[in-house]
Design a protein that fits this description.
alpha/beta, Rossmann fold, 7-stranded mixed β-sheet, about 30% helix
Length: about 170
């Protein structure tokens, strides 16, 4: 079985003087990244591979969660994840070597929300309901698949076991 965690970057500053890729996190974004890092630790999530968009806000989100993770992992800043299209993110994930059973992808909307919807066959009621409502900044979707090879990933092949947002209790 493989597990995929899709984390939308935390809240970014509105900075019209900067290119979009260079926008840093807002104060709330730093707080939310820390909150989600704490949740990952509580749930004992220890991805063997983290793929992160090259956008500043995504890299700062990664920096906010890393202190809460234990174990060793490979971290790759992936320029192709700085996009808003689910197909590109899907291609990246389906090309992952089979040795990584748990991965975390930090990226952008609408790509992550659309990809989650594309991959989900079923899931917990609350998670599916949240997905159908919205996928806010720093939302974390956790999907489980019954196969052991990322090349097998496809439409409606996963179970959405959790969709967590920073403000929930």
């Amino acid at each position: 079985m493989v597990t995929l965690h899709l984390l939308r970057h935390a809240k970014a500053k509105s900075a019209p003087e900067l290119r979009d890729i260079d926008r840093p996190l807002a104060e709330r974004g730093h707080s939310d990244a820390d909150t989600m890092g704490q949740r990952l630790a509580e749930w004992a999530v220890n991805p063997s591979l983290i793929l992160c968009s090259s956008a500043q806000r995504a890299r700062e989100t990664l920096a906010g969660i890393l202190p809460h993770l234990s174990g060793s992992r490979t971290i790759e800043v992936e320029e192709r994840l700085y996009n808003f299209e689910q197909d590109i993110v899907f291609k990246i994930i389906s090309g992952i070597a089979s040795g990584d059973a748990t991965i975390l992808v930090i990226g952008h909307n609408p790509a992550l929300k659309q990809l989650t919807g594309y991959l989900v066959a079923d899931g917990t009621h609350s998670a599916v309901q949240q997905l159908n409502t919205k996928f806010p900044t720093c939302a974390l979707a956790t999907l489980e698949f019954t196969f052991n090879d990322w090349a097998s990933i496809g439409p409606k092949s996963g179970r959405l076991i959790r969709l967590s947002i920073p403000g929930e209790t």
